[in-house]
Amino acid sequence: MIKNIIFDAYGTLISTGDGSVKATEAIFYPHGLSETAAEIYREWKQYHRHHIDTLGEFVTEKEIFIRDLAKLYDKYHITSYAAVDVEPMIVSQYSRDLFLETRGVIDDLKLSYNIAIGSTTDTDPLMYNLNRAELRIDHVFTSESLRVYKPQKEFYKAILERIGWDAQDTLFVGDSLTDDVIGPKSVGMKAILLDRKGIYSKQKTHSEPDAVIQNLTQLIDIIPTIT
Fold this sequence. Notes:
The protein is of the alpha/beta class. The chain has eleven helices and six strands. The chain is globular and about 55 Å long. It starts with a strand and ends in a 5-residue tail after the last helix.
């Protein structure tokens, strides 16, 4: 029986909106590239994933953003300082809002389940957004606080160990098939994929989610059916 729920943060409880694309535009506009900000940001996300997946010694996500931008600058032959120019992307992390249904769903679920957040992000921007939204979650874990990134097993194990939860009693909910389904299930948790854009059917995976939802409100009825 599910007793505990761990939520991903960005894309699940908190919307990233178009903040990252706007930040990319602010960074690259002075360089007059033919590519759009959206196109460049798609490349940025690929570099970001690669840097996380191939990371040796832990560094913060802010440092990874700098590495991403340096790689993009190298590709586009831009001679500028990534560590300075990355600032719009860092600032954009501090202005993200809850999805409309988040507060009501969390309030309802708190009546029956223990709630936590497990997010690939630095601690300060996430806590800033949660505090600004006045969303109170007792247990909040970030890649920075755990010193490891999703989908490494140590990320999920560390959360369970620190709170004292059993994997078989715990459900992970998030919008990434790799980070929020495959990773949690590898340590024995149940997992629900939040598929807001309806793209799950186009993905191939060796680890199926226990349920797929399009909106957080569906959790209320689905969680009791997961055993």
